[in-house]
C-alpha cells in the first residue's frame, strides 16, 4: 500500500479549537497478513532466527494476545514451526478455543498452557532452558515481542512518517514499551513522543523504556512523556465510555480502533489536546498499531462492542 494512503487527517472539533493538526498513521494497513507494530517488532528477530539457523519460534502470551496471533501468522508465512506457551488453563476436552487461539492453531502454532506460577517464570533463564529441553532448539521471543531487536523495526516507522509529513509529536499506545522505545531511537532526541499506557500502574514502564533505549541506542531519551491516566481500569479493562468512544470514532472516521490499545490511545490524545498539552500550531501523528483481531475474542467474552 502506498505510504501516502496510510496517513489520515482526523477532523476533530477539539483539535480545531486548539489549533492542533491531528493525523492518524494507519500502520494496521501496511501488511494485512501481519499488521501493525507486531510485524515491526518481529522483523529483525525473524532475520536473527534465520541467521542463527533456527526453524522454530517459541514465545509466550495470554489467550487473546496480539503477539501470539502475529507469531503464528509469521510462522505460516515464513515457514517457521511455532510454539505458543499460553497463560492459563488448557481448554477442557470438547471446549472450543477462543478466536485468537483458534486462528493461531489454524496458522500452525502448537499451543501449550502454563499456570500463573509457571508463567511468572517466563523470563528466567533456567525456565527457558527447561522449555528448550522440552520442545527442542528454538528462537525464543519474549512476551509482547519486546527485546533489543524489536526496536530497529519500530524505529523505521519514524522515517516513513517523516517522508509524508513534518510533525511535532508522535503518539502511540504502550503495553510493554517496545514500540515507544523504538520510536525514541528513531527520533534520536528530535521532536516529542507521547506514550499512552494501556495498563494500570504503568509508571514502571519508564524504566523499561529507558533501559531498552540505553541498550539499543546507548542512551535514555527525555523527549517523551508517559501518560498513565487512560487505562480504563487496567490491561484489557474497559468502560461504557471507552466503547462509546470507539463506536463514535468509527462513525466519524471509518476507522475501527481496538479496546485494548488504540481506543485508549485516541481517547487519551484527544483529551490531552483538550487540556492544551500540545502547542497551538502543532502537528500530532497518532499511530494505529493494529490489534483489531482482539474484537472477535472481546465479543465472545463481553458481547457486542456496541
From TrEMBL:
Coiled coil: none annotated. It comes from the Bacteria. It holds the Pfam family PALP. Its cofactor is pyridoxal 5'-phosphate. InterPro entries: ACCD_DCysDesulf, TrpB-like_PALP, TrpB-like_PALP_sf. Keywords: Pyridoxal phosphate. Residues 15-290 form the Tryptophan synthase beta chain-like PALP domain. The keyword Cell membrane does not apply. Belongs to the ACC deaminase/D-cysteine desulfhydrase family. PANTHER family: 1-AMINOCYCLOPROPANE-1-CARBOXYLATE DEAMINASE-RELATED. This is Pyridoxal-phosphate dependent enzyme. It comes from Hymenobacter segetis. The lineage of its organism: Bacteria, Pseudomonadati, Bacteroidota, Cytophagia, Cytophagales.
